[in-house]
Amino acid sequence: MGRSVAVSTTSSPDTQDNESKGGSNAVIAVLAVIVALAVSALVVALLYYLYIRHKVKKKRQKNEKPFKQSVTRPQPQYTSFDTQGAQVFTYKQLQVATNNFDEANLIGHGGFGSVFRGELGDGRIAAIKQLDQSSKQGDFEFRVEVDMLSKLHSEYLVGLIGYCADQDHRLLVYDYMLNGSLQSHLYSTGTSGSPPLLDWETRLQVALDSARGLEYLHELVSPPIIHRDFKSSNILLDENFNAKVSDFGLAKLGSDKICGLVSTRVLGTHGYVAPEYAMTGHLTTKSDVYSYGVVLLELLTGRVPVDMKRPSGQGVLVSWALPRLTDRKKLAEMVDPVLEGQYAMKELIQVAAIAAMCVQPEADYRPLMTDVVQSLIPLVKHQRGGSKVMSTSDLQQEVISMKNSSSLDG
Ligand SMILES: Nc1ncnc2c1ncn2[C@@H]1O[C@H](COP(=O)(O)OP(=O)(O)OP(=O)(O)O)[C@@H](O)[C@H]1O
Ligand SMILES: [Mg+2]
To answer: Which of 166, 219, 230, 305 has the greatest CB tally within 10 Å of its CB?
Structure first.
Protein backbone atom coordinates (compact mmCIF):
# COMPACT_ATOMS: atom_id res chain seq x y z
CA MET A 1 0.00 0.00 0.00
CA GLY A 2 2.84 2.22 0.99
CA ARG A 3 4.36 1.60 -2.41
CA SER A 4 1.25 2.25 -4.34
CA VAL A 5 1.04 5.61 -2.47
CA ALA A 6 4.63 6.22 -3.40
CA VAL A 7 3.83 5.56 -7.08
CA SER A 8 0.78 7.75 -7.11
CA THR A 9 2.60 10.75 -5.58
CA THR A 10 5.59 10.72 -7.91
CA SER A 11 5.68 11.37 -11.76
CA SER A 12 8.09 10.77 -14.59
CA PRO A 13 10.00 13.66 -16.35
CA ASP A 14 7.75 13.22 -19.45
CA THR A 15 4.62 13.81 -17.46
CA GLN A 16 6.15 16.97 -15.87
CA ASP A 17 6.99 18.38 -19.28
CA ASN A 18 3.45 17.82 -20.55
CA GLU A 19 1.95 19.54 -17.52
CA SER A 20 4.14 22.67 -17.82
CA LYS A 21 3.32 22.90 -21.56
CA GLY A 22 -0.41 22.73 -20.76
CA GLY A 23 -0.01 25.58 -18.17
CA SER A 24 1.77 27.99 -20.53
CA ASN A 25 -0.86 27.32 -23.24
CA ALA A 26 -3.55 28.37 -20.80
CA VAL A 27 -1.67 31.59 -19.95
CA ILE A 28 -1.27 32.35 -23.65
CA ALA A 29 -4.95 31.72 -24.22
CA VAL A 30 -5.91 34.05 -21.35
CA LEU A 31 -3.52 36.70 -22.62
CA ALA A 32 -4.95 36.36 -26.11
CA VAL A 33 -8.45 36.85 -24.81
CA ILE A 34 -7.38 39.93 -22.82
CA VAL A 35 -5.62 41.45 -25.83
CA ALA A 36 -8.62 40.71 -28.05
CA LEU A 37 -10.94 42.33 -25.53
CA ALA A 38 -8.66 45.37 -25.20
CA VAL A 39 -8.41 45.81 -28.96
CA SER A 40 -12.16 45.53 -29.46
CA ALA A 41 -12.71 48.00 -26.59
CA LEU A 42 -10.30 50.40 -28.30
CA VAL A 43 -12.07 49.99 -31.62
CA VAL A 44 -15.44 50.62 -29.99
CA ALA A 45 -14.04 53.72 -28.19
CA LEU A 46 -12.55 55.01 -31.44
CA LEU A 47 -15.80 54.48 -33.31
CA TYR A 48 -17.73 56.22 -30.52
CA TYR A 49 -15.27 59.14 -30.58
CA LEU A 50 -15.64 59.49 -34.36
CA TYR A 51 -19.42 59.36 -34.03
CA ILE A 52 -19.46 62.10 -31.33
CA ARG A 53 -17.04 64.25 -33.34
CA HIS A 54 -19.22 63.98 -36.37
CA LYS A 55 -22.29 64.95 -34.35
CA VAL A 56 -20.55 68.00 -32.74
CA LYS A 57 -19.29 69.16 -36.12
CA LYS A 58 -22.75 68.93 -37.60
CA LYS A 59 -24.25 70.85 -34.70
CA ARG A 60 -21.61 73.60 -34.96
CA GLN A 61 -22.20 73.98 -38.70
CA LYS A 62 -25.90 74.27 -38.04
CA ASN A 63 -25.34 77.04 -35.46
CA GLU A 64 -22.91 78.99 -37.65
CA LYS A 65 -25.13 79.08 -40.72
CA PRO A 66 -27.34 82.12 -39.92
CA PHE A 67 -24.38 84.28 -38.80
CA LYS A 68 -22.32 83.51 -41.88
CA GLN A 69 -25.26 84.23 -44.11
CA SER A 70 -25.95 87.58 -42.49
CA VAL A 71 -22.33 88.69 -42.93
CA THR A 72 -21.80 87.62 -46.50
CA ARG A 73 -25.32 87.92 -47.81
CA PRO A 74 -27.11 91.02 -46.51
CA GLN A 75 -30.86 91.45 -46.57
CA PRO A 76 -32.55 91.41 -49.99
CA GLN A 77 -32.25 94.74 -51.80
CA TYR A 78 -35.95 95.26 -52.26
CA THR A 79 -37.30 95.18 -48.73
CA SER A 80 -39.30 98.38 -48.42
CA PHE A 81 -39.69 98.50 -44.66
CA ASP A 82 -37.31 97.26 -42.02
CA THR A 83 -39.04 95.92 -38.94
CA GLN A 84 -36.61 97.79 -36.66
CA GLY A 85 -37.63 101.25 -37.93
CA ALA A 86 -35.05 102.17 -40.58
CA GLN A 87 -36.74 102.27 -43.93
CA VAL A 88 -34.69 100.62 -46.67
CA PHE A 89 -35.04 102.21 -50.11
CA THR A 90 -34.07 100.94 -53.52
CA TYR A 91 -32.07 103.25 -55.73
CA LYS A 92 -34.99 103.29 -58.15
CA GLN A 93 -37.35 104.58 -55.43
CA LEU A 94 -34.99 107.48 -54.67
CA GLN A 95 -34.51 108.21 -58.36
CA VAL A 96 -38.27 108.60 -58.65
CA ALA A 97 -38.41 110.72 -55.47
CA THR A 98 -35.85 113.22 -56.79
CA ASN A 99 -36.93 113.15 -60.45
CA ASN A 100 -33.73 111.32 -61.34
CA PHE A 101 -31.61 113.58 -59.09
CA ASP A 102 -32.67 116.61 -61.07
CA GLU A 103 -30.48 119.72 -60.58
CA ALA A 104 -33.66 121.62 -59.72
CA ASN A 105 -33.96 119.48 -56.58
CA LEU A 106 -30.34 119.95 -55.50
CA ILE A 107 -30.17 121.59 -52.05
CA GLY A 108 -26.42 121.67 -51.65
CA HIS A 109 -23.08 119.87 -51.52
CA GLY A 110 -21.14 118.75 -48.47
CA GLY A 111 -18.06 116.77 -47.63
CA PHE A 112 -19.85 113.45 -48.18
CA GLY A 113 -21.74 114.22 -51.37
CA SER A 114 -24.84 116.05 -52.62
CA VAL A 115 -28.21 116.62 -50.96
CA PHE A 116 -31.47 116.58 -52.94
CA ARG A 117 -35.02 117.43 -52.02
CA GLY A 118 -37.36 114.55 -52.82
CA GLU A 119 -40.92 113.36 -52.41
CA LEU A 120 -41.17 109.82 -51.08
CA GLY A 121 -43.80 107.27 -52.14
CA ASP A 122 -45.96 108.10 -49.10
CA GLY A 123 -45.93 111.83 -49.96
CA ARG A 124 -43.39 112.87 -47.33
CA ILE A 125 -40.81 115.46 -48.34
CA ALA A 126 -37.27 114.32 -47.54
CA ALA A 127 -33.66 115.43 -47.88
CA ILE A 128 -31.77 112.72 -49.73
CA LYS A 129 -28.01 112.67 -49.30
CA GLN A 130 -26.12 110.83 -52.01
CA LEU A 131 -22.76 109.77 -50.60
CA ASP A 132 -19.73 109.87 -52.87
CA GLN A 133 -19.07 106.48 -54.44
CA SER A 134 -15.45 106.68 -53.27
CA SER A 135 -16.59 105.59 -49.81
CA LYS A 136 -15.07 102.18 -49.19
CA GLN A 137 -17.60 101.34 -46.50
CA GLY A 138 -18.68 97.73 -46.76
CA ASP A 139 -22.33 97.08 -47.43
CA PHE A 140 -22.92 95.25 -44.16
CA GLU A 141 -21.05 97.76 -41.97
CA PHE A 142 -22.90 100.63 -43.65
CA ARG A 143 -26.24 98.99 -42.93
CA VAL A 144 -25.43 98.25 -39.31
CA GLU A 145 -24.16 101.77 -38.64
CA VAL A 146 -27.05 103.53 -40.36
CA ASP A 147 -29.55 101.21 -38.75
CA MET A 148 -28.04 102.19 -35.39
CA LEU A 149 -28.27 105.91 -36.15
CA SER A 150 -31.85 105.63 -37.33
CA LYS A 151 -32.77 104.35 -33.88
CA LEU A 152 -31.86 107.63 -32.23
CA HIS A 153 -34.96 109.70 -31.68
CA SER A 154 -34.95 113.17 -30.22
CA GLU A 155 -36.69 116.38 -31.18
CA TYR A 156 -33.20 117.91 -31.16
CA LEU A 157 -31.81 115.61 -33.86
CA VAL A 158 -32.71 115.57 -37.55
CA GLY A 159 -34.59 112.31 -38.04
CA LEU A 160 -33.00 109.73 -40.29
CA ILE A 161 -35.88 108.13 -42.18
CA GLY A 162 -33.88 105.42 -43.89
CA TYR A 163 -31.15 104.54 -46.31
CA CYS A 164 -30.28 102.89 -49.58
CA ALA A 165 -27.41 100.45 -50.07
CA ASP A 166 -28.47 99.20 -53.48
CA GLN A 167 -25.38 97.84 -55.31
CA ASP A 168 -22.71 100.60 -55.17
CA HIS A 169 -25.18 103.33 -54.21
CA ARG A 170 -25.11 104.76 -50.70
CA LEU A 171 -27.83 107.25 -49.81
CA LEU A 172 -29.32 108.57 -46.57
CA VAL A 173 -32.86 109.82 -46.30
CA TYR A 174 -33.57 112.53 -43.71
CA ASP A 175 -36.53 114.58 -42.51
CA TYR A 176 -36.65 117.70 -44.63
CA MET A 177 -35.76 120.86 -42.69
CA LEU A 178 -37.53 123.74 -44.38
CA ASN A 179 -35.31 126.59 -43.18
CA GLY A 180 -31.98 124.94 -44.05
CA SER A 181 -28.78 125.36 -42.09
CA LEU A 182 -27.96 127.79 -39.28
CA GLN A 183 -24.91 128.75 -41.32
CA SER A 184 -27.04 130.02 -44.20
CA HIS A 185 -28.89 132.36 -41.80
CA LEU A 186 -25.84 133.60 -39.92
CA TYR A 187 -23.95 134.65 -43.01
CA SER A 188 -26.89 135.78 -45.05
CA THR A 189 -26.85 139.23 -46.65
CA GLY A 190 -30.30 139.70 -45.13
CA THR A 191 -31.62 141.05 -48.43
CA SER A 192 -34.93 139.85 -49.88
CA GLY A 193 -34.75 136.32 -51.29
CA SER A 194 -31.83 135.37 -49.03
CA PRO A 195 -32.33 133.53 -45.72
CA PRO A 196 -33.50 135.86 -42.94
CA LEU A 197 -30.98 136.90 -40.30
CA LEU A 198 -31.70 135.56 -36.82
CA ASP A 199 -32.51 137.80 -33.86
CA TRP A 200 -31.00 137.45 -30.39
CA GLU A 201 -33.85 135.38 -28.94
CA THR A 202 -33.81 132.92 -31.82
CA ARG A 203 -30.04 132.58 -31.49
CA LEU A 204 -30.37 131.70 -27.80
CA GLN A 205 -33.07 129.20 -28.68
CA VAL A 206 -30.84 127.65 -31.35
CA ALA A 207 -27.96 127.51 -28.86
CA LEU A 208 -30.13 125.63 -26.36
CA ASP A 209 -31.71 123.24 -28.90
CA SER A 210 -28.37 122.25 -30.38
CA ALA A 211 -26.82 121.86 -26.90
CA ARG A 212 -29.68 119.47 -26.13
CA GLY A 213 -28.98 117.53 -29.33
CA LEU A 214 -25.36 116.98 -28.27
CA GLU A 215 -26.40 116.28 -24.69
CA TYR A 216 -28.65 113.52 -26.01
CA LEU A 217 -25.81 111.93 -28.01
CA HIS A 218 -23.35 112.20 -25.11
CA GLU A 219 -25.49 111.41 -22.11
CA LEU A 220 -28.54 109.46 -23.25
CA VAL A 221 -27.01 107.03 -25.71
CA SER A 222 -24.98 104.10 -24.51
CA PRO A 223 -22.17 103.98 -25.51
CA PRO A 224 -22.08 107.74 -26.18
CA ILE A 225 -21.96 108.97 -29.76
CA ILE A 226 -19.37 111.62 -30.55
CA HIS A 227 -20.63 113.80 -33.38
CA ARG A 228 -17.10 114.61 -34.69
CA ASP A 229 -18.33 117.24 -37.13
CA PHE A 230 -20.49 119.62 -35.13
CA LYS A 231 -20.72 122.99 -36.92
CA SER A 232 -23.24 125.62 -38.00
CA SER A 233 -23.95 123.87 -41.32
CA ASN A 234 -24.91 120.73 -39.40
CA ILE A 235 -27.52 122.56 -37.33
CA LEU A 236 -30.73 122.66 -39.36
CA LEU A 237 -33.86 124.70 -38.78
CA ASP A 238 -37.42 123.50 -39.26
CA GLU A 239 -40.42 125.56 -40.38
CA ASN A 240 -40.66 127.13 -36.89
CA PHE A 241 -36.91 127.75 -36.59
CA ASN A 242 -36.53 124.92 -34.09
CA ALA A 243 -32.93 123.74 -34.37
CA LYS A 244 -31.90 120.12 -34.82
CA VAL A 245 -28.46 118.57 -35.05
CA SER A 246 -27.75 116.66 -38.26
CA ASP A 247 -25.11 114.27 -39.56
CA PHE A 248 -24.45 112.77 -36.11
CA GLY A 249 -22.17 109.76 -36.23
CA LEU A 250 -21.68 110.24 -39.94
CA ALA A 251 -17.95 110.99 -39.91
CA LYS A 252 -17.50 107.35 -38.91
CA LEU A 253 -19.10 106.26 -42.16
CA GLY A 254 -16.83 108.33 -44.38
CA SER A 255 -13.84 106.90 -46.14
CA ASP A 256 -10.97 106.85 -43.63
CA LYS A 257 -8.18 107.19 -46.08
CA ILE A 258 -7.43 108.96 -49.31
CA CYS A 259 -4.29 107.59 -51.00
CA GLY A 260 -3.21 106.08 -47.67
CA LEU A 261 -3.49 109.35 -45.73
CA VAL A 262 -6.08 110.02 -43.07
CA SER A 263 -8.49 112.46 -44.70
CA THR A 264 -9.32 115.85 -43.21
CA ARG A 265 -12.99 114.83 -43.47
CA VAL A 266 -12.58 112.38 -40.67
CA LEU A 267 -10.77 115.03 -38.67
CA GLY A 268 -13.83 117.29 -38.86
CA THR A 269 -13.97 120.77 -40.30
CA HIS A 270 -11.25 123.41 -40.13
CA GLY A 271 -11.90 125.93 -37.37
CA TYR A 272 -14.17 123.64 -35.31
CA VAL A 273 -11.74 120.90 -34.35
CA ALA A 274 -10.51 120.72 -30.75
CA PRO A 275 -6.72 121.20 -30.48
CA GLU A 276 -6.03 117.85 -28.77
CA TYR A 277 -7.99 115.98 -31.47
CA ALA A 278 -6.20 117.82 -34.28
CA MET A 279 -2.79 117.14 -32.74
CA THR A 280 -3.12 113.62 -31.34
CA GLY A 281 -6.29 112.20 -32.90
CA HIS A 282 -7.55 111.59 -29.36
CA LEU A 283 -11.32 111.92 -29.60
CA THR A 284 -13.74 112.35 -26.69
CA THR A 285 -17.12 113.98 -26.12
CA LYS A 286 -15.12 117.05 -25.02
CA SER A 287 -14.01 117.48 -28.66
CA ASP A 288 -17.69 118.08 -29.51
CA VAL A 289 -17.95 120.55 -26.60
CA TYR A 290 -15.13 122.57 -28.18
CA SER A 291 -16.91 122.59 -31.56
CA TYR A 292 -20.10 123.65 -29.78
CA GLY A 293 -18.18 126.60 -28.26
CA VAL A 294 -17.11 127.66 -31.76
CA VAL A 295 -20.76 127.63 -32.90
CA LEU A 296 -21.70 129.72 -29.86
CA LEU A 297 -19.05 132.24 -30.91
CA GLU A 298 -20.50 132.29 -34.43
CA LEU A 299 -23.96 133.00 -32.97
CA LEU A 300 -22.54 135.84 -30.84
CA THR A 301 -20.29 137.48 -33.37
CA GLY A 302 -21.71 136.53 -36.79
CA ARG A 303 -18.13 135.69 -37.81
CA VAL A 304 -16.98 132.52 -39.58
CA PRO A 305 -14.55 130.29 -37.61
CA VAL A 306 -11.63 130.88 -39.97
CA ASP A 307 -11.25 133.83 -42.34
CA MET A 308 -7.68 134.64 -43.27
CA LYS A 309 -8.86 137.71 -45.22
CA ARG A 310 -9.55 139.46 -41.92
CA PRO A 311 -6.90 141.80 -40.44
CA SER A 312 -3.95 140.14 -38.73
CA GLY A 313 -4.89 138.49 -35.41
CA GLN A 314 -8.57 138.20 -36.36
CA GLY A 315 -8.42 135.28 -38.82
CA VAL A 316 -9.08 132.49 -36.30
CA LEU A 317 -12.29 133.21 -34.39
CA VAL A 318 -11.36 131.37 -31.17
CA SER A 319 -7.94 133.05 -30.79
CA TRP A 320 -9.44 136.46 -31.49
CA ALA A 321 -12.50 136.01 -29.26
CA LEU A 322 -11.10 134.21 -26.21
CA PRO A 323 -9.33 137.17 -24.54
CA ARG A 324 -12.34 139.42 -25.31
CA LEU A 325 -14.97 137.13 -23.80
CA THR A 326 -14.03 138.04 -20.24
CA ASP A 327 -13.57 141.76 -20.88
CA ARG A 328 -16.91 143.57 -20.48
CA LYS A 329 -16.05 146.50 -22.76
CA LYS A 330 -14.45 144.46 -25.53
CA LEU A 331 -17.28 141.92 -25.30
CA ALA A 332 -19.94 144.43 -26.38
CA GLU A 333 -17.71 145.42 -29.33
CA MET A 334 -17.40 141.87 -30.65
CA VAL A 335 -21.15 141.13 -30.85
CA ASP A 336 -22.72 140.77 -34.30
CA PRO A 337 -23.73 144.37 -35.23
CA VAL A 338 -27.17 143.20 -36.43
CA LEU A 339 -28.04 142.29 -32.82
CA GLU A 340 -27.59 145.79 -31.47
CA GLY A 341 -30.25 146.74 -28.90
CA GLN A 342 -31.70 143.22 -28.71
CA TYR A 343 -29.90 141.75 -25.71
CA ALA A 344 -29.40 142.54 -22.03
CA MET A 345 -25.76 142.88 -20.98
CA LYS A 346 -26.31 140.28 -18.26
CA GLU A 347 -27.41 137.70 -20.85
CA LEU A 348 -24.47 138.51 -23.09
CA ILE A 349 -21.99 138.04 -20.23
CA GLN A 350 -23.51 134.67 -19.38
CA VAL A 351 -23.42 133.37 -22.95
CA ALA A 352 -19.84 134.64 -23.34
CA ALA A 353 -18.82 132.80 -20.15
CA ILE A 354 -20.27 129.52 -21.48
CA ALA A 355 -18.50 129.98 -24.83
CA ALA A 356 -15.20 130.76 -23.07
CA MET A 357 -15.41 127.53 -21.05
CA CYS A 358 -16.30 125.39 -24.08
CA VAL A 359 -13.29 126.54 -26.15
CA GLN A 360 -10.72 126.03 -23.39
CA PRO A 361 -7.58 124.50 -24.93
CA GLU A 362 -7.46 121.98 -22.06
CA ALA A 363 -10.27 119.43 -22.60
CA ASP A 364 -10.73 118.77 -18.87
CA TYR A 365 -11.65 122.40 -18.24
CA ARG A 366 -14.53 122.26 -20.71
CA PRO A 367 -18.01 121.64 -19.27
CA LEU A 368 -20.28 118.69 -20.03
CA MET A 369 -23.11 119.39 -22.46
CA THR A 370 -25.55 118.86 -19.59
CA ASP A 371 -23.93 121.79 -17.77
CA VAL A 372 -24.22 123.93 -20.88
CA VAL A 373 -27.92 123.07 -21.21
CA GLN A 374 -28.57 123.93 -17.57
CA SER A 375 -26.77 127.28 -17.93
CA LEU A 376 -28.74 128.24 -21.04
CA ILE A 377 -32.21 127.26 -19.81
CA PRO A 378 -32.77 130.41 -17.67
CA LEU A 379 -31.80 132.62 -20.65
CA VAL A 380 -34.34 131.20 -23.10
CA LYS A 381 -37.76 132.76 -22.75
CA HIS A 382 -39.88 130.60 -25.03
CA GLN A 383 -38.89 127.00 -24.62
CA ARG A 384 -40.28 124.18 -26.67
CA GLY A 385 -43.10 122.11 -25.17
CA GLY A 386 -42.65 118.83 -23.30
CA SER A 387 -39.54 116.89 -24.13
CA LYS A 388 -40.06 113.99 -26.48
CA VAL A 389 -36.62 112.61 -25.77
CA MET A 390 -36.66 108.88 -25.13
CA SER A 391 -35.75 107.78 -21.64
CA THR A 392 -32.23 106.48 -21.14
CA SER A 393 -33.42 102.99 -20.29
CA ASP A 394 -35.67 102.76 -23.37
CA LEU A 395 -32.90 103.82 -25.67
CA GLN A 396 -30.21 101.72 -24.03
CA GLN A 397 -32.42 98.69 -24.29
CA GLU A 398 -33.07 99.35 -27.97
CA VAL A 399 -29.42 99.98 -28.81
CA ILE A 400 -28.29 96.94 -26.85
CA SER A 401 -30.90 94.63 -28.35
CA MET A 402 -30.01 95.86 -31.80
CA LYS A 403 -26.32 95.21 -31.19
CA ASN A 404 -27.05 91.71 -30.02
CA SER A 405 -29.10 90.95 -33.08
CA SER A 406 -26.41 92.27 -35.42
CA SER A 407 -23.48 90.66 -33.56
CA LEU A 408 -21.43 93.79 -34.13
CA ASP A 409 -20.15 96.42 -31.76
CA GLY A 410 -20.64 99.31 -34.06
N1 LIG B 1 -32.35 117.32 -43.75
C2 LIG B 1 -32.11 118.40 -44.48
N3 LIG B 1 -33.10 119.27 -44.77
C4 LIG B 1 -32.88 120.39 -45.50
N5 LIG B 1 -31.66 120.73 -45.95
C6 LIG B 1 -30.62 119.91 -45.68
C7 LIG B 1 -30.79 118.70 -44.96
N8 LIG B 1 -29.59 118.10 -44.83
C9 LIG B 1 -28.72 118.89 -45.46
N10 LIG B 1 -29.30 119.97 -45.99
C11 LIG B 1 -28.66 121.07 -46.71
O12 LIG B 1 -27.85 120.51 -47.72
C13 LIG B 1 -26.61 121.18 -47.80
C14 LIG B 1 -25.49 120.20 -47.81
O15 LIG B 1 -25.49 119.48 -46.58
P16 LIG B 1 -24.32 118.51 -46.21
O17 LIG B 1 -24.63 117.92 -44.87
O18 LIG B 1 -24.08 117.57 -47.32
O19 LIG B 1 -23.06 119.47 -46.14
P20 LIG B 1 -22.46 120.29 -44.97
O21 LIG B 1 -23.35 120.24 -43.78
O22 LIG B 1 -22.13 121.64 -45.51
O23 LIG B 1 -21.09 119.56 -44.66
P24 LIG B 1 -20.89 118.10 -44.02
O25 LIG B 1 -20.79 117.18 -45.18
O26 LIG B 1 -19.64 118.20 -43.29
O27 LIG B 1 -22.06 117.81 -43.16
C28 LIG B 1 -26.56 122.16 -46.65
O29 LIG B 1 -26.74 123.45 -47.18
C30 LIG B 1 -27.71 121.84 -45.78
O31 LIG B 1 -28.33 122.99 -45.34
MG1 LIG C 1 -24.13 118.38 -43.01
So the answer is: 230
